[in-house]
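so my prof wants the structure for this chain in the tokens format not the other one, which i didnt know existed until like an hour ago. anyway here's the sequence
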Amino acid sequence: MSGVAAAIVLAGSGGERLALGAWLVVAARATTAIPHVRAQVQRLHGRAAPAGPLIAADAAALTLSALAVAIEPAVAAGAAAIVALVALGWALGRSPHPPRCSASARRSSASPW
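here's what i got, hopefully its the right format
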């Protein structure tokens, strides 16, 4: 997805710095999203989700966002959104228990119709 963002910028006559900045912002989002989804799946299956990988992923995402702004200030809004998402995620906390699923929700998710 990051490559697509950069390609769109370049196809629209944007500069290389803007394309790199856009690429870094989208990469930052993926960097933090994937470990958090994995942790949620672990919790869903009743396994512990260690905080270390989540902290590392969030730190990497914040670093990529800062680098993106340093390269191209025009991507500051996207980088700020990454910072806000990371901050909001930690402010709301992480539930140690998986979300409860009702029997009707399980039945409806099993049906393709």
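also thought this was worth mentioning. The CA atoms of residues 30 and 61 lie 8 Å apart.
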